[in-house]
């Protein structure tokens, strides 16, 4: 499934606060209307850690009288990294901004996932720009690294969905401050989360990509398509940019010298990627640099479209294991071409 998003994270857009628990025996009659603080509906039974992890839904532990959009975050509480913000309940919308063309499939998928659980789905939408002066909008920024490495004014309220490997390229004040200023940081890699906590003392929530109907095709969703290699005219497909990365160019050149019908492409839209996957016998997943975490983002659309995936092993073996146990073929980078040929020959003899 796509990331498990429930109202504990999104319903009121304001429960990103330190560990607390929720009491169910309070009604709005006890306080002036519209002034319910999350601290005021807390007890010792249910920790907010359980809520944020998805084990307990905020809806399940709030009384019927206390509405999610009437819970406020106490302005004295720390959110995100170390920034204290007054997060009022007058948020009118959740706007999703994708800062990177390379993650273009995630916008529609995240929109669908949030609308499916948010109690005002009509207020959730995709946007193509950030309005830094709006104080009534919660932004979810997909791949904040796409905003560049220069300091820019950020929206008042935002969540980062951090999708880059937190190596030396992002070890700078501009990017770290962008993470610190967020109400919350989501990350697709537990490896990254550990780095962020240890290096910057910034907490992050694990939000990996997963299946969503928007990144699949109708015939897969309704069960009418059964996987077949018949009619596939591409031996090896790679969805990603190559020209700036020697290790990707090396694999592409070796595919060509091996007389494979290969297609390395980076400028397809979502529908174009779906069609390319359908045409391809093998889809490669590989990193731009040596010693990289598993690139789950691109793995997402490949698996949602029934691709045969050949992936290089990552430095995060714990992340590789569940994919390997469910059909993804992992090999060292040096063995990608050899294994691709093995797979192609095995398809011929089926």
What can you see in these coordinates?
Helix content is 28%, strand content 17%. It has helices at residues 7-10, 48-52, 58-61, 106-115, 173-180, 190-200, 218-221, 246-257, 270-279, 296-304, 317-324, 336-348, and strands at residues 36-37, 71-72, 78-79, 83-84, 93-98, 124-127, 137-142, 158-162, 184-187, 205-206, 234-239, 262-265, 280-285, 309-312, 329-331. The longest helix has 13 residues, at 336-348.
Summarize the model shown.
This protein has 350 residues and is an alpha/beta fold. 28% of the residues lie in helices and 17% in strands.
Strand line-up of the largest beta sheet: 6-5-7-8-9-10
The domain tally reads: 2
Shape: globular
Please tell me the overall pLDDT. 80
Helix content: 25-40%
Task: Count the E strands.
Answer: 15
Rounded to the nearest angstrom, the radius of gyration is 22 Å
Oligomer: single chain
- Main sheet? 6 strands, parallel
Number of helices: 12
Distance between the termini: 31 Å
Our estimate of the beta-strand percent is 15-25%
Order of helices and strands: HEHHEEEEHEEEHEHEHEHEHEHEHEH
By secondary-structure content and strand pairing, the structural class works out as alpha/beta
Q: pLDDT under 50 segments (min length 5)?
A: 1-46, 48-85
């Amino acid at each position: 499934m796509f990331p498990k998003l429930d109202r504990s994270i999104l319903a009121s857009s304001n429960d990103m606060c330190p560990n607390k628990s929720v009491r169910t025996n309070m009604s709005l009659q006890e306080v002036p209307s519209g002034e319910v603080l999350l601290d005021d509906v807390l007890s010792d039974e249910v920790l907010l850690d359980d809520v944020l992890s998805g084990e307990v839904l905020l809806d399940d532990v709030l009384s019927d009288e206390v509405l999610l959009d009437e819970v406020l975050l106490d302005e004295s509480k720390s959110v995100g990294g170390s920034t204290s913000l007054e997060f009022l309940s007058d948020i009118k919308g959740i706007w999703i901004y994708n800062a990177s063309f390379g993650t273009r499939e995630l916008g529609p998928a995240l929109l669908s996932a949030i609308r499916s659980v948010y109690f005002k789905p009509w207020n959730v939408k995709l946007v193509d720009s950030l309005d830094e002066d709006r104080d009534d909008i919660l932004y979810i920024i997909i791949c904040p690294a796409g905003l560049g490495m220069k300091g820019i004014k950020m929206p008042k309220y935002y969540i980062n969905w951090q999708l880059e490997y937190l190596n030396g390229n992002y070890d700078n004040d501009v990017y770290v401050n962008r993470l610190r200023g967020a109400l919350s940081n989501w990350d697709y890699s537990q490896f990254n989360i550990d780095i962020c906590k240890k290096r910057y003392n910034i907490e992050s929530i694990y939000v990996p990509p997963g299946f969503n109907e928007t990144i699949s095709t109708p015939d897969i969703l309704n069960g009418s398509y059964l996987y077949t290699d018949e009619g596939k005219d591409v031996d090896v497909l790679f969805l990603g940019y190559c020209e700036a990365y020697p290790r990707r160019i090396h694999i592409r050149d070796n595919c060509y010298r091996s007389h494979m019908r290969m297609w390395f492409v980076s400028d397809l839209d979502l529908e174009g990627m779906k069609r390319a996957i359908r045409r391809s016998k093998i889809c490669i997943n590989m990193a731009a640099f040596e010693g990289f975490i598993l690139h789950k983002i691109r793995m997402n659309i490949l698996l949602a479209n029934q691709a045969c995936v050949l992936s290089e092993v990552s430095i995060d073996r714990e992340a590789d294991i569940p994919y390997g146990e469910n059909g993804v073929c992992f090999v060292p980078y040096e063995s990608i071409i050899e294994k691709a040929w093995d797979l192609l020959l095995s398809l011929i003899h089926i």
